[in-house]
Amino acid sequence: MRLAQGMTSSSVGGRASGTPGCVYLVGAGPGAADLLTVRAHRLIAEAEVLVYDRLVSDDVLDLAPPKATRLFVGKAAFRHSLSQNEINALLVKLAGSGHEVVRLKGGDPFIFGRGGEEAEYLVRHGIPFEVVPGITAASGCATSLGIPLTHRGVATGARFVTGHCRDGVDLDLDLNWDSLADPQTTLVVYMGLANAPRMSRRLQAAGLPPDTPALAIASGTTPQQRICRTTLQGLPDDVAAAGLSAPVLLVIGKVVREAERIGICGVPGEPKRLQREADRA
Question: How many CB atoms lie within 10 A of CB 183?
Fold first, then answer.
C-alpha cells in the first residue's frame, strides 16, 4: 500500500516502546533488485516499517515481508507527497515510538538522496541510525552498459551533478558551467530529462565541443531500460524524439564512445540469458 498524507506513527502497526528504534538509511541501488548490497537485502527482507522514495523499484519493494508497513514519501518535480521537513519529522516520530525503520532511497542515500539531511535531523533528535551504502545510478547504469566513467587516456575524472531545479531555484544559479565543460572529464547528470536542452546549450557555450558523445539512460538496469545515443548538440532533439520518460540519467563525455568497443546491452544480463536458453535448446 502507498501511504503518506496524514500518516503518523499511531497508524503504523507493530511494537512501540519507550526506547527509540533505529532508522536505517538504505541505498536501494540503481533499480535492479540483484544489485542491492547483501546488508540492504537483509534489512528490507526483515523490515517492520519501510519508508521509501519514488525511484525505488517494485522489484526491490517486493523483497519486503507482507506484514511490513509501507509508507510512500516520493518526490517528483514540484509534486511532493511529503516535504523533506515532514519526512524528517516522520522518521523521528516512527523511531521515537520504538519502530525499526528502513528508510529506502534509490541509488546511494548520500548522493543526491538527501540522506545527509535526514542523518543530521536524526542526530539532533537523539535517534540512532545506520547508513547502508548503495550503488549510485551513475556507476550502476553506466557500468552495466559497458561505459567506464573513467578511462586511461580518455577521461581522468568524473563529475556528478543534478539537472533538477531545487525548490524552484533556477538551474543556472547552481552549476559552474565553465568548470563542467571539461573534455577530459565525464559529466553525469542525475534527473536530467527536463533540463536537457539547457544542459546542452550552456555546456556548448562554455566550450564543450558540440560533437561530444552523450547518452541518455531511462530506468537504468531494469527491464524497462531505454537508451538514446547522441551528441551534446543533438541531445535535446534526440531525447525528445526517443520519448524517454523519467528517471533519466545523462552521461556526457568521450567515454560514451568506449561502449562501441565494449558493447552496449539493451537490458543488463539479457545476452547471457539468451545464450543460456540457446544452450539448453
Answer: 12
Q: Which residues pair with 192 in a beta bridge?
A: none
pTM: predicted TM-score of the whole model, two decimal places: 0.84
| Annotated catalytic residue within 59, 67, 75, 167 | 75
Per the annotation, the verdict on 53 as an active-site residue is yes
pLDDT of res. 167: 53
Please give the Cα distance from 100 to 98 (Å, whole number). 7
**Cα(216)–Cα(226) distance, integer angstroms:** 8
- In the beta sheet, which residues pair with residue 213? 231
Q: How far is residue 19 CA from its own chain's centroid?
A: 32
* Structure confidence by residue, pLDDT tens digits, 166-217: 554 444 546 899 999 999 999 999 999 989 999 999 999 999 999 999 999 9
- State yes or no: is 237 an active-site residue: no
With cell 532533439, the residue in question is 237
Residues 75, 100 contacting (CB under 8 angstroms):
no
Catalytic residue among 53, 105, 108, 182: 53
| Parallel/antiparallel/unpaired status of strands 69-72 and 49-52 | parallel
**How many Cα atoms occupy the beta-carbon half-sphere of 28 within 13 Å?**
28
Domains of the chain, earliest start first: 9-135 (3.40.1010.10), 138-262 (3.30.950.10)
> Residue 18's pLDDT band (boundaries 50, 70, 90)?
confident
Residues paired with residue 229 on neighbouring β-strands, in sequence order: 215
Q: What is the DSSP string of 102-120?
A: EEEESB-TTSSS-HHHHHH
Q: How does pLDDT run across 128-169, given as a tens digit for each residue?
A: 999 999 999 999 999 999 899 999 999 999 999 998 655 544
